Known about the structure:
Bound molecules: adenosine monophosphate
CATH class of the largest domain: Alpha Beta
Amino acid sequence: MSFESLGLAPFLLRALAEQGYETPTPIQEQAIPLALEGRDLLAGAQTGTGKTAAFGLPLLQHLGTNPQAVDGPRRPRALVLTPTRELATQVHDSLRGYSKYLRIPSACIYGGVGMGNQFDVLRRGVDLLVACPGRLIDHIERRSVDLSGIEILVLDEADRMLDMGFLPSIKKILAKLPRQNRQTLLFSATFEESIKQLALEFMRNPEQIQVTPKNTVAENISHRVHPVDGPRKRELLLHLLAQDSREQTLVFGRTKHGCDKLAMFLDKSGIKTAAIHGNKSQGQRLRALGDFKAGRVTVLVATDIAARGIDINELPKVINYDLPMVAEDYVHRIGRTGRNGSTGQAISLVAQDEAKLLRQIVRLLDKDMDIRDVPGFEPQTPIRWGNSAPGKAELPGGDRSPRKHARRPHAEAPRHAHAGPKKAGGGQRDGAGRGAPRGGQPQGQRRGGGNTGGGRSQGGGGGRAS
Length: 466
Ligand code: AMP
């Protein structure tokens, strides 16, 4: 399958080729032809699947081939809502890259920065708006943005937006959009009832597509658990990181304060580390991410929400310093490793009080986990895994009362927590009905290279992050 065969216009194909995209990813294969037909989409795809191009390319093709008849101020025609500033920036940057040979004025609107520049760019007029809900509401209330001309709406990481409490804001925004002739593309890693409700309310007979079955992870990722006493986690983490101090590693912590303390500890111990979480300023977060991507720091310690949507390719290892409170977040966390078919490793440091969380994760993943002590770090308090463990999992220890070091003869001898037979996976789609195909001539197509005009970038509001 090639990008040409998906029906994309030459001005997009050229930009994709320059970015080294050769073949579409599964979500792109499924989403692009349907979105080009004007269908509403309910797409199940996580970060790392190529979802940005899956909604971005059809959106740009629509804008590029159906020029706006400007009589009066330019109003936005496409709106992409994202939960966090980082994701908004990334999506905006990606769309600007894909629209290199188009002239599509755009803005990226999120909170935590002044509104002045945003007022200016909105007043000058944009076709495309990438925004976090909170700051967009501010603009709606100040009447600095007019959403009555929106033709395409994208809800990116809809599940996360709802988790973050953005549902009332999203509904407020939706109430400002035209209901008729609007195409809505909703992307979400999971489909809780609340997402389905939202879709029912605001979408027209959406086509459902999915690239990975709900809550599954790539097969090429190995999952390892190191039991450890809580107070010794820092030492164990340092020990593991020191084994290859140049390996880029993303470490997840549960709290902002905990992440800061951990980052400081690692840094003092000689491992170049940065932390990323919601208490950091926008500048600090972007700098930390940039330093990590460029290899200036080897370890990035992050909270779940701050890390959501950050685009780091081919990360070999993710370490869960704390297990996430919600099992689904484990899936999001390790979605950062093992991308594009490369192998990945997910390591979790698990203390006694996290045994229940681990059981929930194994049950959700339906996957084997390799549980092994690290010599010198065997827990003093053996972990009570419980017999109700994950699926058919044979997690050691059962519900027996804790025994000291009595569970296995050799610390490094691996045991496996089995999760039973694998569920069938793979792409699937359902739904029916076709809208009118879109077509026409490219607007403002450029000759030659260079992204010299068109899109204007602008920072701004809304995305909260933990
Ligand atoms: P996303 O899921 O949109 O965050 O994309 C994950 C990463 O994959 C980004 O770095 C994209 O630039 C990259 N990507 C997306 N689609 C393709 C493709 N068809 N070929 C190669 N890389 C891609």
